[in-house]
Amino acid sequence: MAQFNPLSPEFSPLQRRLRVPRAIRHAPFRRVALRVVCLAVGIAFAPGLTSLRHVAAQAPPAVAPPASLAIAGAVGKPAKWTAAQMATQFAADIRPLDYTLKGAKLSAKQTFPLLKLIDAALPKVNPHVKHGDLQFIVAVEGSDGYTVDFSYAELLPEIGNRPVLVALDQDGKALTGEGGPAELIVPSDVKPARWVHGIARIVVIDGSQVPEPLDAK
User: Fold this and answer.
1) CATH superfamily label, 68-206
2) In the 8-state DSSP scheme, what is residue 119?
3) Do residues 111 and 185 lie in contact, with contact meaning Cβ atoms separated by under 8 Å?
4) Which residues contact 189 (CB under 8 A, 6 or more apart)?
5) % helix / strand / coil in the chain, to the nearest 5?
6) Nearest CA to 169 among 104, 86, 102, 93?
7) How confident is the model at residue 209 (pLDDT cuts 50, 70, 90)?
C-alpha cells in the first residue's frame, strides 16, 4: 500500500484536508501534532500564569502574631498574654519607672507588679494548710532560656513586699523580637541578676509537692 502524501498533486485541496487527519496517526506526524498542542496550551495559559505571579508578587507579607508569654504550673487559670492584653487587663496598676541598668539611665512608661499576673492565674493554694501560699515558688524564664526564681512570699505586700515589676516597654518603645513581649525588673536587687529580658514563660510551683520525702540524714 502506497504511503499517503498530502502534498501529492493527484489530490485536490479538499481531499488533502480530509486525509491529513488520518495521516497524522503515523508516529512522525503524531509527535509534531503533540508539540503543536502543547505549545497552544502553553500560550493559552501563559496570561493566567503571569497574572497569578503578579498577584503573588503584590500580596502583602505574612504578619507574625504578636509575642506572648505563658503562665502555667500550679494555677487554676493558665494563660498566654500579649503586651496589649496585659496593658488592658492591668491598666489600673500600671506605673512609669525610671531605673539604671549597667550605668545607663533608662525608663519604662508601663510597668506593673508581677504579683498581679500571678494572682490572675489563680495559684492553687490549699486553704486548709496554714500559710499555704508561703510554700509557692515563681520561676520566670526568658526567651533565651535564662531562668530566675522568687518565693511567692517575697512578692506579697504583707510579707516580703519586694517590688518585682513587669515592664512592657523601654524608653516608651514597645519590646519586640526576643525582647518581647515584656521584661522583668527588680529595682531593689543590688545586682540585676534576676532581671529577665524577653519573658517567655512563668511557672508557679507548689513547693509542698516534692517528689519524695527529703532525707533527714
Assistant:
1) Oxidoreductase, molybdopterin-binding domain (3.90.420.10)
2) H
3) yes
4) 195
5) 35, 30, 40
6) 86
7) confident
Is 15 or 83 the better-scoring residue by pLDDT? 83
Query: Where do runs of H (alpha helix) occur along 25-72?
Result: 27-58
CA–CA distance, 46 with 27 (Å, rounded to integer)? 28
Q: Round to whole Å and give the CA distance between 205 and 136.
A: 6
Amino acid making up residue 91: A
Residues 46-76 have pLDDT tens digits of 555 555 556 555 656 655 567 999 999 999 9
Per residue in 74-99, pLDDT tens?
999 999 999 999 999 999 999 999 99
Q: Delimit the CATH 3.90.420.10 region(s) of the chain.
A: 68-206
Helices (H) and strands (E) in the chain, counts: 5, 11
Distance of CA 76 to the CA centre of its chain: 24
